[in-house]
């Protein structure tokens, strides 16, 4: 997992080229007003504009991905994100079509505040639990870039991480 800020040019400069390119796409001001949904990018990469209400952690499931790296940018609102290194067995089979496996709590999650302008990058060896209410449920607007892991695997972890 990496955490940074869209405003931190030095942090972004140390990231692999493919990841910097994704962050440039996610910085497009038009996405702030775009309707929720998926947008295809170059190759197998895509992004999603998400609008939702945060929930208590107990109502959500931790997840991991095998084919894609998640590049998440908070536009509006705030949530908590739980993180742990991949360990334990998923409580459901891997869904190849959705590129997701859900995990039992197993390892304790480390909690991070996710506020406007923050960036989180989750690799396939990261379990993450997004969408958790900070204090009470609230609306958030978030971008999630999906970057094929094959474009990053040779450059991971980045020196900036």
UniProtKB/TrEMBL annotation:
SUPFAM superfamilies: Clavaminate synthase-like. One of its GO terms (cellular component) is cytosol. InterPro entries: NanQ/TabA/YiaL, NanQ/TabA/YiaL_sf. Gene3D superfamilies: YhcH/YjgK/YiaL. It comes from uncultured Pleomorphomonas sp. This is Putative Toxin-antitoxin biofilm protein TabA. It holds the Pfam family DUF386.
């Amino acid at each position: 997992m990496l955490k940074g800020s869209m405003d931190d040019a030095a942090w972004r400069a140390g990231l692999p080229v493919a990841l910097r390119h994704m962050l440039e796409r996610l910085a497009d001001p038009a996405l702030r007003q775009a309707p929720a949904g998926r947008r295809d990018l170059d190759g197998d990469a895509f992004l999603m504009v998400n609008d939702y209400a945060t929930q208590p952690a107990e109502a959500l499931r931790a997840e991991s991905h095998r084919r894609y790296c998640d590049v998440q940018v908070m536009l509006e609102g705030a949530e908590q994100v739980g993180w742990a290194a991949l360990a334990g067995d998923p409580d459901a089979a891997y869904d190849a079509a959705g590129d997701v496996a859900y995990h039992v709590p197993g390892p304790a999650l480390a909690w991070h505040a996710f506020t406007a302008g923050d960036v989180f990058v989750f690799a396939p060896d990261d379990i993450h639990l997004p969408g958790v209410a900070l204090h009470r449920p609230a609306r958030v607007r978030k971008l999630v870039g999906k970057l094929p892991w094959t474009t990053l695997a040779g450059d991971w972890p980045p020196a900036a991480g």
